[in-house]
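[[Sequence with C-alpha cells]]
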Amino acid sequence: MSNKNLHAATVPGIAVLHRRRATAGWPAGGGAVAVAAMAAALLCVAPAGAQQVALKDLADLSLEELSNITVTSVSGNAEPLSGAAASIYVITGEDIRRSAATSLPEALRLAPNLQVARIDARNYAVTARGSNGAFSNKLLVLIDGRIVYTPLFSGVFWDAQDVMLEDVERIEVISGPGGTLWGSNAVNGVINVITRSAADTQGGLLAAGTSGRETDTAMRYGGTLSNGGHYRIYGKHADYDDTRAASGAQVFDGWRRDQVGFRADWGGGADAFTLQGDAYRGKLHQALTSAIQTGGANLTGHWNRRFDDGAQLRVAAYFDHTDRSQPGAFVENLDTASADLQYAFKLGAAHQVTLGGGYRASWDRLENTPGLAFLPAALNMHWGNVFAQDEIALTESLRLTAGAKVETNSYTGAEFLPSLRLAWRVTPQHLLWSAVSRAVRAPSRIDRDLYVPAKPILTISGVPIYLLAGGPNFVSEVAKVYEVGYRGQPAAAFTYSVTAFYQHYDKLRNLQAGLLGLNLAFDNTAIGSVGGVEMWGSWQVTRAWRLSGGFVGQHTGARPAPDAVNQGAALSLGNDPSRYWTLRSSLDIGDRQELDVSVRHMGALPTPAVPAYTAVDLRYGWRVRPNVQAALIVQNLFDPRHPEFGTAPGYSEIGRNIFAKLNISF
C-alpha cells in the first residue's frame, strides 16, 4: 500500500488512517474522514462527566464468576454455565472488545468449539462438529431469539447478518444438538447472540475503525422513556474491499452495508418487555455482472412474566423481511412471522417443568433465471411445535432432564426430537454430564425445489429432462447423538471443560442419476458419522494476565447407504479439519493499556484441499481519556496471506490487516 493512498486525520493521541477505495465501479469512500473529524470534535467537547468507555481489569470478573454466568440456550431456563449439561461456551462482550474481531463471524472465532473459515471478503463457512461449507445447513443461529437461517438451504447468509459488536452482552455457543428446545436444524450446534439491555447502553457511543481494506463506523445513543423504560438507537456502515487470489488476480467479493436499529426495554420484577428492530441494505460485488443487492427489516418483541409462586411465562414474536437480488441466479423476497410461548413452573420439590409451543410461517417469492429455478417460484411454508421438559432432582447432586419436541414442517409433517441429559455435581466445583439426543435437518428449498436449468433440456415419453430435477422424495436428515462431558474448577485460578461426542447420521443427502444419466435428484441414500473430543480452559496467571485456549479433534466420514443405487458416489459431510486449536493471552499493562494476543491453528482441509495455517492476531488497547479508547489491531501478524476455504487456485487469500479503532462515549 503506497503512501499516496493514505491520508491521516489526527486527533489527540491517535491518527486514523484511511485508504482511498479503488474497487472497480465503486466511488471512493470518505466515511473514515468524517468519523475522524467527528471524533476530534467529540474529544474536545466531551464533558468531564461523560460516560466512561468500559476498560475492565481482568480480575474484575473472576473465573468463578465467569463460570456462573447465566445461560439460557441449553434448557430454556436461566442456569449457571457451570451447571449446564451441554458442551456450551460463552463469548462475553468483554471477550469481543479485547479481540481482533471486526464483524460478527470474526467474533465467533473466539468460541473454541466452532469451525470458522473466511471464504472471501464477505462469505464465511461456520459450523460445529463438521459439515462445514459455504452452504452449511446443520447449525442454528439466532439473534435475540430471532432465527436467521434461510429456508433456501437451511443455512445463513453471513453477508446479511450484523450487529453492533459493542452492544453484544454474550454469545452462547452450543456444540451438539439443541432440537428439543430449538427445533429442526439445531443438529450440530446452536449460536445464540444476545444483546445488552437498553438500560446498559445509556448515553452516546461513537465507534470507528479503518484499515487498508475495510472501514467500519457506528454510532449509538441511549436514553430514558417517560414510563420508566430505556431505549437505544444506532446506525452503522461497513465497507470492505475485494480480496485477491494466490495469483494476484482480483476476486470480486467486496461489499458495503448500512444498518440502523433500535431497542427499548421497560418494566422489571414481575413484568419485563422488550421491543427491538433493525433495517439494512447492502451491495455485494461479483464478477462479470452487476452487484448483488441485499436488504431487510425485522421487528422482535419479548414479554417475561414472573408469578408469585416462582412460575415464569415467556412470550416472543417477530416479523422478518429479507430480499436478495443475485443477478445470474435468482431474486428472492422472503417474509417470516413467528410466535413462541414458554411456561416454566415447579411441580413438587423435585420437578422443574417447562412447557411450550410455537408457530412460524414464511412466504417465499422468487424470480428465477434461465440457469436455475426454484419450482414452484412462490411457496408458503409452515412450522409448528409443542414441547415438554422436566428437570428432575434425583438427589441433591444428581439431576435428570428429559424433554421432547414434536415439530411439523411443510415438507415432511411431524418430526420427533427427544433428548435425555444426566448431570452429576461431583463437588460444588465439578460437573459430570452425559446426553443422548435425536435431531433432524428438515428439507430446504434446494433439497426439494431446485431445477437446473429452469426449463427442460428435452422431453422423453412425456418426461421432462433436466440436469438437476429437484428431490421430490427428499425427507429430513437424522442425527443420533451421544455425549459425555466434564466441567470443573480445580482451583480459583483455573477452569476447564472436556466433551467426548459421537454423532451418527441417517438419511443424509445424496445425488442419484435418472434417465440417461440426467435428471439428477437429491435423495436420502447416504449415512455418516462424526466423533471426537473438544476441550477448553482458562488460567488466571496473575491479576493482570489471563490465558485461555481450546482444542478440537474430530473424525468425519460419509458413505452411500447399503440400499443406495449409486454406490460409487463421492460423499462428504463437509470440508473439515481433523484438528484445530486456539490460544489467547490477555494482559493489562497498568491502568490504561492492554495487550491481547490470539493464536489459532486450523488443520488442513481434505476436499477440496486447503493447506493448514496458523494465524496470530494482536490487539493493543489504550484508554486515552476516561471516555476515549483507542486500539491498534493486527490480524495475521506473521502471515502475509493464506487461504481458509475454497478451491485452488481461485480461492481468496486472507492477508495481513492493520486496523485502527477508536471508541468515544459521551
Observations:
- The first helix runs from residue 31 to 45.
- DSSP finds six helices and 42 strands in the chain.
